[in-house]
């Protein structure tokens, strides 16, 4: 009852054989070119063939960034790869003779967390992946919520500030602009201007990298104890919690799971998120409250979730 | 296969026999006292007995404002009735020998709309009930989303403005404070101060009622064509649409249905909501868009939805 | 060279003889009725006569809430007294044979602070009076800024939050709604709902007064060290400082002086205001920064300022 | 009684002889290098010498971007030229033997408008210069308001949106980010994403220039009648008027004058600004209201204002 999970990124694919307990039994990778859909398909097909040499598998789950069609057979739109209303399952089926399902990558990662990670005891959960942007996944009553058109859980694009920061999506005030690595980068650059005296450690880290300050420098400096960086991460955690309180009004989940690179700041972002969640939760005291936990699955979450979703 | 639906309000209960097509075959009402839970139960039991004289029913659905326990057997909390972790099903079962389910009233009304009204062709839908406040219901993949603790779809308490208007819930900037009858009342009272010259019709209507201006005066004057009132309703519609765009980022539903008293302004609020939805929808043009329609079920929606939910 | 200062309130007038060093040599009071302008005038005339028995005075300065005409001879509008384009100087001159000037009460209090209090060494200053509302006074280059129509320094009505809290003035998001006794009252009432566990001391103080919680309870509890109340005052101080940073962009004063009842929290509100001012000041580091101090003149500021303004 | 005005820009200086009626009698220009303060000084000295061949002048006024010292003898800080606490008057006096005053360029332009342009009948006025950014000047009681440290009237850096757009100054939500050419550029680029169907004319104009869309394309298309561009300018005008209402609460001026490139859209921006000003003005109806007019002085305003300020 093993399946294969594939995580298609912008520059490579990662593939793995996953058993029914979420264990990755074997992995492989291949470099790809986002501009060449056919080459991506060949790479997926080759990776599957390689993994099947030593493993019997009953299906293949493929995760990619973008909107997935509701019946999971193709991509409606992808931000990084030239897919538009693209029949990805049919294309892959030319070289793969077991069932294939396509899934959004944030959904796959959230599903892995739900099944085998921080959410394994929950029936409903919201995953918040704080990477460069803010991705999400929603599971309600043990079901992944995909939406009518495969575009649900684009949580980073809830508007949290009218007339707020301009998002790459063309709108103002998206949650992602306040709670993501990108937000941390912007906050750090502002602090260099407005809080120059306290920004020494950030300048050092950036200088050592030969780059402008970015979010990773803040998470690193915060881990070391740099006061300014800890403030910036706390502020970000505040926005995470405030947005989670909004989602609790909509979905009333049992659990929020915070993952992605920003989550590496651990307790700092977690405590700030929990405090803001408590402060902003409507009807607090008149209802049970969701728990907020850090993710546990790490970098293989996409592979594991995609593989497991073949069974659902 | 008929069932009974009960809508418990603050001052009365309404009960009806409903067939499997959502038709109300017979109705009855009883005055009640929100401070006396036992009297409410007796009234429900008596109403059910009365209706069963002429109808075979297979179950009873009971709708009330508040948080319903996840397994639909009681009330976690009610804002208007003295219920707190209250075993309402067990209490009613003392006098009713068919299956009973308890449901939140906004969920029941939304379900009626989903099954027999504006949403009857949809698989996923969000109901927005613009009454005094802003209530909601969420249906995804033909399932009512109740949340882990029965508190889902409290849509009016999403925060749309940081540091915004104070809501009775204790928080600032709740959507309800911008998109509800209460919001319309506040906007009208502000307009009396800041736009005195154009507020003549509103002052007349309030004077005729012997009250301060309120939301109903605005909807009436807007229907008559009063320019200021039409602006106020349009502004409200804008907030409805902007909030719906937020929900689309989370849920990606096929349909939004706008009901409640404010929806009586018809096309005016609908067109404003649609325009704002289009303007604020993330990734517009790269995904199919939800439709926004007015509700069709009218005042019996609570009864019909509660009755039908017995079957689900 | 002594003059008389009169402070006309809603229920009483206070009058005093003031020397050129801002010392009050003699005081008197009279109860008045805001609905009876003639009685107010008689009371002012009688108070002046009483004080002149023992003092030679060269003029009378009268302070009152509202908009004062640019040439200081009357009231354009008063919020609490039935004055509208009212020739107050001419009316008082019937019983007072020395020069009379009329001045806005917040301007008079700010002027007293500028001449004899915290601002006595400054050339330019902004006074922020945090009472029930938020009043202000602006002195630039040793001149009181009255505006073209006597309505300058209505600082509480700068908008600091689009779509924010509804102000009695008919607008949303006025600074006064975030930085005043009224704001503190609202924040405290919200905290009773959202932070119930920590609001014990506030509930006690309100119960002891037999009223709902209000701003004064918060300032008292904060002075005692109550953690929740200290947070609420700190939050208010944040808004004070953020608004002051806005004013610094407009006016670049040398000094801000914080007075009024909320200022009785002393260092707590002061430090919070200073921190937010530093954080929000544009071009910080490229310009000298204004100082922020607490007021020193206490309750006679209106009398002293009005008396002194006769000389300017 | 003629004087010389000098406008020092980033790449050139413009100089003119101006009579006491604000007429420019002779002009000259010189290219300069912002990185070479000495060369700038030599250019100013040479320009003055050239103009004095045919004109007797009693003083020289020099306008430049940045903070000017309160006694007008030097630059505290300049954003574009390497001046920091720089004794510019002393440096220029080495080659100019008549009195010299230094002034901020936006102040000089506003002063020209006040003395000879749209504000020539006013006693108090606020100038809003909508160029790439938003500059300002404040005149109260016929006096230019310079502030304690020469940094007054940095109006573009009032915060109008908490958590709003990131300004180059390091802060969020500055007025300049909503009411300037830069704001128009951002709004246009957003509209290309969110309102693609209606953005044809903007795309054409940008393509013809071989650049990305920018503010000038919007003002041009708006002048032609392009509906989307007219909306964008109207929206900008709204922010202009809303900010002006804030300033009216602080300063109560008689007049606002709107200048700069965005003002070339004329009635469109003017009417939108007036409407928002009326809608947002506190205590409207209880006080006389400021007028809002377009600037009249055109491109020589800096020279004329600097020259005239020598006399004040």
Automatic annotation (TrEMBL), chains A, B, C, D:
An MF annotation (GO) of this entry: glucokinase activity
Keywords, ordered alphabetically: ATP-binding, Kinase, Nucleotide-binding, Transferase
Enzyme class, UniProt record, top EC level: transferase
Pfam families xrefs: ROK
Keyword Cytoplasm annotated: no
Listed EC numbers: 2.7.1.2
CDD domains registered for this protein in UniProt: ASKHA_NBD_ROK_SgGLK-like
InterPro entries given in the database record: ATPase_NBD, ROK, ROK_cs, ROK_glcA
Family annotation (NCBIfam families): ROK_glcA_fam (TIGR00744)
PANTHER family to which the protein is assigned, alphabetical: GLUCOKINASE, ROK (REPRESSOR, ORF, KINASE) FAMILY
Family in the record: Belongs to the ROK (NagC/XylR) family.
Listed name of the protein: Glucokinase
């Amino acid at each position: 009852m093993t399946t294969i999970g594939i995580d298609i990124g912008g520059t490579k694919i990662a593939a793995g054989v996953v058993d029914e307990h979420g264990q990755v039994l074997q992995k492989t990778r291949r470099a790809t070119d986002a501009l060449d859909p056919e080459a991506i398909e060949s790479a997926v097909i080759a990776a599957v063939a390689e993994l099947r040499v030593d493993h019997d598998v009953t299906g293949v789950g493929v995760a990619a960034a973008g909107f997935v069609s509701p019946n999971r057979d193709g991509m409606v739109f992808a931000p990084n790869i030239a897919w538009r209303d693209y029949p990805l399952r049919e294309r892959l089926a030319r070289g793969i003779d077991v069932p294939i399902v396509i899934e959004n990558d944030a959904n796959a990662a959230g599903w892995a967390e739900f099944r085998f990670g921080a959410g394994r005891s929950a029936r409903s959960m919201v995953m918040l992946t704080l990477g460069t942007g803010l991705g999400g996944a929603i599971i309600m009553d043990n079901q992944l919520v995909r939406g009518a058109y495969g575009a649900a859980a684009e949580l980073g694009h809830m508007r949290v500030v009218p007339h707020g920061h301009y998002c790459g999506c063309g709108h103002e005030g998206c949650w992602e602009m306040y709670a993501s690595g990108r937000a941390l980068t912007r906050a750090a650059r502002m602090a260099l201007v407005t809080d120059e005296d306290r920004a020494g450690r950030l300048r050092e880290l950036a200088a050592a990298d030969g780059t402008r300050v970015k979010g990773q420098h803040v998470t690193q400096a915060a881990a070391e104890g740099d006061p300014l960086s800890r403030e910036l991460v706390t502020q970000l955690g505040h926005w995470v919690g405030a947005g989670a309180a909004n989602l609790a009004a909509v979905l009333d989940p049992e659990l929020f799971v915070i993952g992605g690179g920003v989550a590496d700041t651990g307790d700092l972002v977690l405590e700030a998120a929990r405090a803001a969640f408590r402060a902003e939760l409507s009807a607090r005291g008149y209802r049970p409250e969701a728990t907020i936990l850090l993710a546990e699955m790490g970098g293989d979450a996409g592979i594991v979730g995609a593989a497991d979703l073949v069974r659902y």
